[in-house]
Write a structure and sequence with these properties.
The protein is α+β, with helices and mostly antiparallel strands and 134 residues long. It is built from three helices and six strands.
Length: 134
């Protein structure tokens, strides 16, 4: 019985060792592959600059976070696919609204168009001031 158990254990060990040494064949995914598009984002919160890489779905959450920070009294700036938030430009567009959804949509559209967007919120008047530089 001891010899039979040792033989079975030895064969099991050898089988595991042999299979672990074989090269794994990785099959390519079907033609329905989706590549995840990433967005390089440079942003600042009260002048402190950060960089991150986001997916499209994370971009929406990022914009909501920026709006929330602005509502709390922070000055936020952000841009997509740029290396800096430099505002030395020729074009400046300002948008003022009390509607957060309008401010969100405007800021998203301007960022998609290559602008650096700055958002502040005046708690006294309830107005979002959105400024875009290009």
């Amino acid at each position: 019985m001891k010899i039979q158990f040792k033989t079975v254990a030895l064969l099991a060990t050898l089988t595991l060792a042999a299979t672990s040494c074989q090269k794994e064949n990785v099959l390519p995914l079907s033609g329905n592959e989706q590549t995840m598009e990433t967005i390089q984002v440079v942003y600042s919160i009260n002048g402190e600059v950060f960089q991150t890489t986001l997916s499209e779905s994370e971009w929406d959450a990022f914009l909501e976070m920026m709006m929330s920070l602005a509502r709390e009294g922070y000055e936020v700036s952000f841009s997509k696919n740029r290396s800096s938030l430099s505002s030395q430009s020729k074009e400046k567009v300002t948008f003022v609204t009390t509607d957060e959804k309008e401010a969100y949509t405007w800021a998203e559209n301007m960022a998609n168009d290559g602008y650096v967007v700055t958002i502040t919120f005046n708690q006294g008047t309830g107005e979002y001031t959105c400024i875009a530089f290009k």
